[in-house]
């Protein structure tokens, strides 16, 4: 190297050294400034500018700058609130340290490259005052709209890279003085390994991790994001555990009276976000959320309750949150309970509710529930003493909260469906809800275009191993109805009820009964086709649905049915086919503490029922081991008629009994009922009459028989046999047609040897005597045709003897002793024939009244018409009260002989009777008749005188009978011997006259006076008396002639007679 070159080299080296020295000095100066001056300056400027910007006091403990490592650290920054000063209250915002490490590679990429950012112990304190103002309201207003002022250049993608972003142990406090609540998000930790938009790295994945505790409940968020790629994707996993939702009660919009008690919220969710260029973003959700130990109470209902749920799980499987595809999820809940606050046992409990494929299609406004499964459902229904169903009270408001809202819940008797013993009889089985404003809104919404109603879809509902309990507290000592092991399946469900669903059901009723059903069911309109199998189902608990109409108490009863039930159409048509049974039925009078009705078995075979048009076909009815207590009550009504209450309020408010009047004849028609056979076996009827004093009772036992067939136009046979008081055999036979338009009846009933002394209550009341002894046999025949009743009663009393006399208004004036004397024969027997007639179409028709009046009339005839009374025991005895005579004669003819013989027989058979005989004459007929008799006797006398002259014996005038020739011959003889002036011929001699003229002249000169007529009447009575004594064999001391009487007579009853009176 030359010297010149060496000098030049040294000169350059010297310049470089000077430059480096200056640079070093500058660097040293800057370092000194950065260490000793700049941190303080930066701290001061930071406090000043932040205070001015935030309008709040801002303090910074220190600022550290490391130029050689490009690190910045801000320590203990604190932003105080308006109302606080440093050190006097918790700050609005603070952090312990903010550390930023800028990479030297920022020069390389000409963009910010941060190696790490760490924020330690950040804290934010947010307050909402009682008036609703926030402590950062001014900041939100100031900085809330800055984004609107950004230019389009701000939207360009500026490169940057930030690594190791960390927030450590952060904390957010939320103080809500408006709701009087406080919330804390603590232990906030955020880590983002890298986020970069440098060239070549913008498509990389960002994997953040966030952890915190919300009110001490852990929450974590992890994921992977590509925020700067053309095809943006993100996957975020969110987990939270045991979030206590009771902390958030002030923010829950719960109905009035509902209070949240406990509840915890867990979640394990995964969000997937994908947005391709020029495409709408897609949001998919996977995972599940769980609501645990949820309990709340409701005190705003008629029956306050507490509800709880152990767990509710909602699972999401690729659920599209944008609504472009159906929203799919699964729901499972466990141990749901609802308990009255007054009880410890739940009224409703559900072991598990599962909806495995819930789909919500927003575009089609359709909700598909898929398969709904309910396991271990338990429900307890209770009917209180006032007749209200408590489960309805659980959802009925305690008091109305809005004037325009009205909710009415009334549950009582059902005439259906459905359909108490103590509620008002005017109550209905209805649930009515009215809310006028809501109805108006709904109508408007339905009318508005685009507001179509959402359509639900349910594939199936399954109820597994359910248990239902029904208890009626309005009845005393009634076993609850319990249906358990209940399985129900509903398939192909149309929520609108138009298309039929398929139903299958089976369960156990009160441990020994069972129910099975299967078939189809729709309800809009109603249409069902069900196969039903009931086996020994206890119906005791269902009796309250009859309301207060049932006056007795059902203590047992098992119903069975196997068949098919169809319903549908408008008007509703119901068809029932199958076999039924009602067994072990027992109905008691709870007030009198005795049985009313019971039977062991009532079988109905081959039932075919249709309601419209009505048709009832029954193959057979078997009733065995039955009992009925029939009592005539003190007011004269029958107890069995009062089992179903038949009273209603009349306009004046008093109760009146409804009496069904028969329909007009023109409206009568056949009743379409067909019963092949009715079988009775081993029946008993206990009859009590409390209307009579003293009371009367009797028992019908061993009732067995059959009736049928019965249907319109066919008279079914009746054959029933039994015993009265276990000693008197009873037989009922005949025919009956109860279902034709007109009742057709022909029944014969026979009973033998009923002891009469037990009937003394009736004899004492109606005839004034007790019965000492005797037996009753009866043979009665009742016929009904075209509404006309004809009855033939043959009653036989053996050794009927009256006891002591008893004061009785009804029987005091009755000639009972005479009636018995007239009716009883010498063997102590009374044989009565008592016919009856009436019309069953008469609204006042009463068979008992007709029979009673007939008996009273029969006894009364002992005085008014004793021979009519005898007519009830002897046919034709009514004619024995008299015998007729030929006018003018006292001779007994052949027809009268027959009557006298019958009368003699009556007297012989009734030795206690006496007979009075009175003769009667007709002043006109007998006057002329007696003249003819005198004429006849005069003619006969001349015949006898002529025979005597000839030596011929002729006998008496009465015995003589004249031939026509003799009559003409001796008429002329008698005429000639008469002393009166006779017609003469022209020569002055008696003129020869025809026989008729001679008779007229002789009759004209015969004189008959009243004494002659009285003697005629007396002779008639004597003739009858003599015949009875001489020919009838009657003792003379029993027959008395009591005198003669003038009697003009009539066409039906001639005056020429003899009358008999029995005493």
Summarize the SSE layout with pairings.
Elements (H helix, E strand, L loop, with lengths): L2 H52 L3 E9 L4 E9 L13 E10 L2 H5 L3 E8 L2 E6 L8 H7 L17 E16 L4 E16 L12 E6 L2 E10 L5 E13 L13 E18 L6 E17 L6 E16 L6 E14 L7 E14 L4 E3 L2 E13 L6 H4 L11 E6 L19 E6 H12 L7 E18 L8 E13 L7 E9 L3 E11 L2 E13 L14 E16 L4 E17 L4 E18 L2 E19 L14 E3 L5 E3 L15 E17 L6 E13 L7 E9 L3 E10 L6 E12 L4 H7 L2 E17 L2 E18 L10 H8 L5 E11 L7 H18 L1 H6 L10 E3 L9 H16 L5 E7 L3 H25 L14 H14 L17 H10 L5 H21 L8 E8 L10 E6 L1
Parallel strand pairs: 4-6, 5-6, 16-20, 17-20, 28-31, 40-41
Antiparallel strand pairs: 1-2, 2-3, 3-4, 3-5, 6-7, 7-8, 8-9, 9-10, 10-11, 11-12, 12-13, 13-14, 14-15, 15-16, 15-17, 18-19, 20-21, 21-22, 22-23, 23-24, 24-25, 25-26, 26-27, 27-28, 29-30, 31-32, 32-33, 33-34, 34-35, 35-36, 36-37, 37-38, 39-42, 40-42
| Total count of helical runs of at least 4 residues | 14
Low-confidence sequence ranges: 400-449, 649-666
| Helix and strand composition category | alpha+beta
Provide the CATH architecture of the domain at 879-1063.
2-Layer Sandwich
Helix content: 10-25%
Sheet of most strands = 34 strands, mixed
- The CATH H-level homologous superfamily of the domain at 879-1063: OmpA-like domain
> What is Rg?
60 Å
Average per-residue pLDDT, rounded, comes to 79
Number of strands: 42
What does this structure look like?
There is one protein chain. This protein is of the alpha+beta class. Among the domains are: 45-137 and 159-215, no CATH class; 742-875, no CATH class; 879-1063, 60s Ribosomal Protein L30, Chain: A, CATH 3.30.1330.60. Helix content is 19%, strand content 45%. The chain has a 34-stranded mixed sheet that branches. Strands 39-42-40-41 form a 4-stranded mixed sheet, with helices on one face. Strands 18-19 form a two-stranded antiparallel ribbon. A hairpin with a 7-residue loop joins β21 and β22. α7 packs across α8, α11 (925-949) crosses α12 and α12 (964-977) packs across α13 (995-1004). The longest helix has 52 residues, at 3-54. It is rod-shaped, with a radius of gyration of 60 Å. Mean pLDDT is 79; it is low at 400-449 and 649-666.
């Amino acid at each position: 190297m030359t010297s010149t070159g060496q000098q030049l080299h040294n000169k350059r080296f010297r310049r470089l050294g000077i430059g480096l020295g200056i640079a070093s000095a500058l660097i040293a100066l800057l370092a000194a400034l950065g260490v000793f001056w700049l941190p303080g300056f930066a701290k001061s400027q930071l406090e000043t500018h932040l205070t001015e910007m935030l309008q709040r006091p801002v303090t910074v403990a220190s600022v550290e700058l490391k130029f050689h490592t490009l690190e910045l650290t801000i320590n203990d920054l604190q932003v105080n609130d308006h109302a606080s000063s440093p050190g006097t209250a918790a700050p609005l915002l603070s952090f312990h340290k903010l550390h930023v490490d800028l990479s030297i590679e920022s020069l390389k990429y000409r963009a910010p490259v941060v190696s790490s950012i760490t924020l330690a112990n950040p804290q934010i304190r947010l307050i909402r005052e009682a008036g609703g103002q926030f402590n950062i309201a001014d900041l939100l207003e100031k900085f809330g709209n800055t984004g609107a002022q950004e230019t389009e250049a701000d939207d360009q993608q500026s490169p940057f890279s930030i690594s190791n972003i960390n927030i450590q142990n952060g904390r957010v406090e939320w103080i809500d003085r408006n709701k009087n609540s406080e919330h804390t998000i603590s232990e906030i930790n955020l880590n983002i390994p890298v986020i970069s938009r440098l060239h070549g790295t913008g498509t990389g994945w960002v994997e953040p991790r966030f952890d915190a505790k919300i009110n001490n409940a852990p929450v974590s968020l992890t994921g992977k994001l590509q925020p700067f790629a053309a095809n943006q994707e993100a996957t975020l996993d969110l987990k939270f555990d045991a979030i206590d939702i009771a902390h958030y009660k002030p923010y829950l919009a719960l109905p009035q009276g509902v209070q949240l008690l406990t509840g915890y919220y867990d979640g394990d969710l995964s969000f997937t976000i994908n947005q391709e260029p020029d495409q709408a973003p897609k949001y998919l959700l996977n995972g599940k959320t769980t609501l645990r130990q949820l309990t709340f109470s409701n005190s705003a209902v008629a029956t306050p309750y507490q509800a709880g749920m152990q767990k509710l799980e909602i699972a999401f499987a690729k659920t599209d949150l944008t609504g472009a595809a159906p929203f799919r999820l699964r729901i499972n809940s466990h141990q749901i309970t609802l308990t009255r606050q007054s009880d410890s046992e739940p009224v409703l409990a559900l072991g598990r509710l599962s909806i495995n494929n819930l789909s919500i299609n927003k575009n089609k406004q359709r909700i598909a529930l898929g398969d709904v499964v309910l396991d271990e459902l338990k429900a307890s229904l209770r009917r209180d003493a006032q007749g209200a169903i408590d489960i309805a009270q659980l959802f009925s408001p305690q008091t109305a909260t809005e004037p325009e809202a009205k909710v009415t819940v009334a549950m009582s008797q059902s005439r259906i469906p459905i359909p108490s013993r103590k509620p008002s009889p005017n109550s209905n089985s209805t649930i009515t809800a009215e809310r006028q404003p809501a109805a108006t809104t709904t109508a408007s919404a339905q009318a508005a275009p685009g507001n179509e109603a959402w359509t639900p879809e349910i594939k199936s509902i399954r109820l597994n191993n359910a248990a239902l309990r029904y208890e009626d507290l309005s009845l005393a000592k009634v076993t609850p109805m319990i249906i358990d092991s209940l399985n129900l399946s509903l398939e192909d469900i149309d929520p609108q009820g138009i298309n039929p669903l398929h139903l299958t059901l089976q369960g156990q009723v009160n441990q020994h009964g069972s129910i099975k059903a299967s078939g189809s069911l729709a309800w809009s309109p109603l249409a069902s086709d069900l196969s039903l199998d009931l086996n020994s189902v206890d119906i005791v608990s269902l009796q309250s649905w009859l309301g207060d109409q049932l006056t007795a108490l059902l203590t047992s009863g098992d119903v069975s049915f196997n068949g098919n039930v169809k319903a549908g159409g408008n008007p509703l048509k119901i068809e029932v086919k199958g076999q039924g049974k009602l067994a072990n039925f027992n109905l008691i009078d709870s007030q009198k503490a005795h049985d009313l009705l019971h039977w062991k078995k009532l079988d109905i075979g081959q039932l075919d029922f249709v309601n419209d048009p009505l048709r009832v076909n029954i193959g057979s009815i078997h009733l065995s081991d039955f009992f009925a207590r029939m009592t005539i009550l003190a007011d004269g009504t029958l107890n069995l008629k009062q089992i179903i209450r038949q009273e209603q309020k009349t306009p004046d408010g008093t109760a009146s009994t409804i009496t069904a009047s028969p329909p007009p004849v023109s409206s009568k028609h056949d009743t379409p009922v067909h019963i092949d056979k009715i079988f009775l076996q081993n029946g008993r009827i206990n009859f009590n009459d409390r209307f009579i004093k003293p009371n009367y009772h009797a028992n019908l036992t061993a009732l067995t028989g059959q009736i049928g067939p019965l249907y319109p136009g066919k008279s079914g046979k009746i054959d029933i046999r039994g015993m009265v008081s276990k000693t008197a055999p009873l037989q009922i036979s005949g025919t009956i047609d109860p279902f034709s338009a007109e009742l057709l009846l022909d029944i014969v009933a026979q009973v033998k040897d009923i002891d009469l002394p037990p009937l003394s209550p009736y004899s004492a009341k109606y005839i004034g005597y007790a019965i000492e002894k005797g037996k009753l046999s009866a043979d009665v025949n009742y016929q009904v045709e075209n509404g006309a009743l004809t009855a033939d009663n043959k009653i036989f009393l053996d050794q009927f003897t009256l006891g002591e006399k008893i004061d009785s208004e009804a029987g005091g004036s009755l000639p009972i002793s005479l009636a018995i004397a007239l009716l009883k024969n010498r063997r102590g027997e009374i044989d009565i024939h008592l016919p009856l007639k009436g019309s069953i179409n008469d609204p006042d028709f009463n068979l008992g009244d007709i029979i009673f009046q007939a008996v009273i009339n029969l006894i009364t005839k002992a005085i008014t018409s004793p021979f009519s009374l005898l007519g009830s025991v002897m046919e034709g005895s009514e004619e024995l009260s008299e015998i007729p005579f030929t006018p003018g004669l006292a001779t007994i003819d052949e027809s009268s002989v027959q009557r006298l013989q019958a009368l003699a027989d009556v007297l012989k058979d009734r030795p206690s009777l006496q007979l009075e005989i009175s003769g009667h004459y007709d002043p006109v007929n007998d006057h002329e008749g007696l003249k003819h008799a005198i004429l006849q006797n005069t003619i006969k006398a001349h015949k006898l005188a002529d025979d005597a002259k000839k030596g011929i014996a002729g006998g008496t005038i009465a015995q003589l009978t004249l031939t026509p020739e003799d009559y003409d011959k001796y008429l002329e003889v008698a005429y000639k011997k008469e002393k009166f002036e006779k017609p003469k011929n022209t020569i002055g001699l008696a003129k020869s006259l025809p026989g008729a003229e001679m008779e007229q002249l002789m009759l004209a000169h015969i004189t008959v006076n009243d004494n002659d007529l009285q003697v005629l009447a007396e002779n008639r009575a004597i003739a009858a008396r003599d015949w009875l004594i001489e020919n009838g064999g009657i003792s003379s001391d029993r027959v008395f002639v009591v005198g003669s009487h003038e009697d003009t007579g009539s066409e039906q009853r001639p005056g020429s007679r003899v009358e008999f009176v029995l005493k």
